[in-house]
Amino acid sequence: MPESVHSQDQDQPMADEVAAEVDPITLDDKHIVVLPGATETAASFQFEGEGHTMGNALRYAVMKNPAVEFCGYTIPHPSDAKMHFRIQTTDSTTATEALEKGFNDLMDLCDVVTEKFTAARDQFNDEKANRMES
Amino acid sequence: MSREAYQVPSMGAQNAFGTDAGFGGAMAVDNPSVVYLCGECSARVPLKRGDQIRCKDCGHRVLYKERTKRMVQFEAR
Amino acid sequence: MAPLVPSQDEQQRRRIIDINAETVTNIPSTDFPGHWPGESHAWAVDQFKNTFQVDFHRNDPLEASFSLIGLDAAVANAFRRILMAEIPTLAIESVFVHNNTSVIQDEVLAQRLGLVPLKGSVEGLNWMHWFRKPGEDEDGSNASEPSDFNTVILRLDVECTKNPEADENEQDPRKLYNNAHVYAKDMTFHAVGRQESYFVDEGAIRPVHPEILLAKMRPGQKIDVEMHCNKGIGADHAKFSPVATATYRLLPDIKILRPIIGDDAKKFAKCFPKGVIGLEPVTAQEAGRGGSGYEGHAGEQKAVVQDPFKDTVSRECLRYDEFQGKVKLGRVRDHFIFNVESTGQFDSDVLFLEAVKVMKLKCARWKRGLNDLMA
């Protein structure tokens, strides 16, 4: 069983508004680890149990930040479920801030996608129902 | 460290591998019958120790063991 | 200084991935700050809200097709990956074989049973929690007890018998015997505790396809198994994947640069699937315009792009000398045509929304992990 599939009882501090209608992949007490050699504006973060799914999407979101000079991710070895995420920023921000902004932007994106998708689907279903009637 | 000498299997040496609680031990005491299935007619054939291995109905000489009555757990993967 | 805005032509050029005779070029996205001098490209939700579009082509419970326009490949791919591997579903996980005298081996039967797609009340399925199995390396203190909120019990108890009413000359084993074929519909659901209120009537846990053949038997053979279903994700085992397929392709783009007329037009249309290229007569007006390439061809057939959506982007048309330099093939970088086929536990459109939700949840959880790091 992969690390990501865990009992959700241990994931109680879910104060976020997105919380537990469905309880998919939980995180347990996993943390992001900062790899050695980090400075304020340049750091590599290690995500455990994560892969290309979040890696590439997050890289896109972080790269969209003008204060980020470099951003990239790698999975150093396919047999450990670890993803390394590198951010280098200008002096106007820090690597951690840029990462946090990346998460926020990605969550905003998800909201827009959900909203537009739901609207388009409902419209499509209505039109289909109308066509059936007429 | 001398190797154990080979023991010729015999009725008397039945308990060489375990003293009392073993399957063989129970066999020796009760001599119960074990049910087999005939390979030809699928009849249930109870056999005791020393019985001729032969179906009582059709005389077929191939008998099979019954499936275990225990529950067996599997992962569906 | 206000950021530069590239011209319409330039924006259009950047949107197209070029498909050449032997190469594919202009692949990576360049909409990042710092890539084009003077242009912004910084993330802006409002702008994304304005440009992002969803277009539905089909919406059935078992198959949905829709276009997401204005998204980056990284994000579209994340949705696709989550769709396949990270949306939890219910599937048979443990099989307890009480008796199986059929010719199919216990472990083979168990594996087969695991792959049967199940459905039931969506509300009930969402209410269910994970079942945590005792790991080999731990003492089992974290393992879950099977309860109504994490385990669904199904049973399969069938025995094959002779059918006394069967015709003497009957050859079909299904008529000759009772239960000669064991189907998925023979599995029975046994609600426990609160499941009795969630999984009732139409909401009962049952196989999506009742006619899946599980085993074959002959008179005297018997299968008696109990199955425990748990929630899991596709990353763990494919039986938990909620989709049969979840794919996307980029919208094909065909540009006819110079006129293709007459027999060439017919040949050109044949290079593409039906409906992609249409034939239209050259109008007198076009023929009258100098330098258009249509001079003196009034009334002849010309090739026009009718519906690039139907194209498969074969490069057949690039092989002929007569079309050399007259056509440009490509794909639209940010137009993803998704195709989602559900296995039946959830509706296909719901699955996509679920994928977006999972993505957001992942972000929220990692962000929390980041906050812990800062504290």
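Chain B has one helix and four strands.
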